[in-house]
């Protein structure tokens, strides 16, 4: 519940978009229209895998005009602890899932004069929604979408169909790479860039943007960060008076939730800041994996983002 | 009494520094702002052949800052007779500028505000504009009653230069207008006007 209001949905349709990507159409159980959201938003999907609760954020690809459904696209991740595998292998049409209200940490800057959308692989999901919103608003935009090979481009055909020559596709297998140095310099003043994809790609595009003299205010990114595993450690929740073990395949937030404490979260991807928690003491080294805290805050050791960060050591005492 | 820095909506001017990554520098300066431009750009002479300076002497007329700016030898310098003409020229440049252009604004607060408001109209994020306040602390104030703008307001209350009402200068800054708000001070009891305080000189 600490992710905010929850919405019960039924899986109305499952489409195998490529060998590794499935798209799910989610309809509200209540029959009430699903909330309107701005492009770039995601929901957190709660899954119950035989009593093992999994919560993963997924970007919203689209919403039916009448609010009768949302669509999400999920990549089957190798070495998954469960979330994406569960959605690929266990979820059937007609099944029920719980989602949170949409949260947007990757919105379009409406005052921008033009928008350059850059996607890599499954990072296309929020970009797909943004492109549609910009088309509907008749705003100037262009799309650059990189994928492994033609069979991976689940969204490519649809993007081309909807956005025509505004789309450029790049295929890794044809050695086609997104040339930031060619795309960025000639954009009109007031252009904003949005990138979502693998870490390395995001870093390269952002670095290219700075090199082309773009202000940081015009460069936007979203990382599909998943909690990283690590050695197990113990967590003591001072206010609740509970001590629990964070297993190696579990995030700190998941262990806190499993212990029965309703801790805050929104993105579960180290970006929103909602799960920020005060560290009372740490017997070991904090491993900060988020993109929220500043370097100084990370170094101070006073706070931790429970959704993606952990302790390398014996015990962590939190103000929870 | 609140001091100027206590005002939440008042913008923060971090000071000019040359963006080493920018491929083009577009500098709008007024009055004493010329000194800030000279200080910043003489530290980064390699940037000057990609720099355009638009300068309005304004309150510093006669001090010949324009010659000192020309001595920097930027790619282009244009000295405008008034802020209005400078802004027309600036907007023409913003319209055709490409990303990689860094905008700088320096001079009085009223001037910086007008440059920022013009740039925001071209999709520029105001945080990305490098600004430095120089010269008088005079404010540019919009009368909330007649909407007329009065420049160089140094005391509160003051007389609106358009409708003649006596206006109290509120600490509310509109980024869109690049101006503070002036509200009638004797609306309740006409003629009861507190003594003017010199605040922003
Ligand atoms: C804002 C946001 C939006 C997102 N949108 C989408 C989307 O639209 N589509 C989409 O497919 N995904 C999206 N994601 C990613 C998604 O939430 C999941 O992270 C992803 O589906 C993988 O989940 P999983 O449970 O299958 O894998 P996880 O078990 O979370 O594993 C992810 C990776 O972490 C590593 N890992 C995890 N645990 C361990 C461990 N104990 N030891 C070693 N390595 C480990 C694995 O190598 C694995 O590849 C989004 C993420 C964020 C933050
Ligand atoms: S829940 Fe968003 S940063 Fe942790």
CATH topology title of the largest domain in chain B: Rossmann fold
Q: Are there runs of chain A of 5+ residues with pLDDT below 50, and where?
A: none
| Total beta strands of chain A | 17
Give the low-pLDDT segments of chain B: 1-6
**Total individual domains of chain A:** 3
Give the overall shape of chain A.
globular
CATH superfamily of the largest domain in chain A: Nucleotide-binding domain of ferredoxin-NADP reductase (FNR) module
- Which CATH architecture of the largest domain in chain A is right? 3-Layer(aba) Sandwich
Q: Structural class of the helix and strand makeup of chain B?
A: alpha/beta
User: What is the CATH architecture assignment of the largest domain in chain B?
Assistant: 3-Layer(aba) Sandwich
CATH class identity of the largest domain in chain B = Alpha Beta
Largest two-chain interface: A-B, 23 and 19 residues
Sketch the topology of chain B as an H/E string, one letter per element. EHEHEHEHEEEEEEEE
Strand order of the largest sheet of chain A: 1-2-5-4-3-6
Q: Could you say which small molecules are bound to this protein?
A: flavin-adenine dinucleotide, FE2/S2 (inorganic) cluster
What is the CATH fold-level name of the largest domain in chain A? Rossmann fold
Q: Outline the biggest β-sheet of chain A.
A: 6 strands, antiparallel, barrel
Structural class of the secondary elements of chain A? alpha/beta
Keywords (chain B): 2Fe-2S, Flavoprotein, Iron, Iron-sulfur, Metal-binding, Oxidoreductase
GO molecular function (chain B): 2 iron, 2 sulfur cluster binding; metal ion binding; oxidoreductase activity
InterPro entries (chain B): DmmA-like_C, DmmA-like_N
Domain Dimethylamine monooxygenase subunit DmmA-like N-terminal (chain B): 6-129
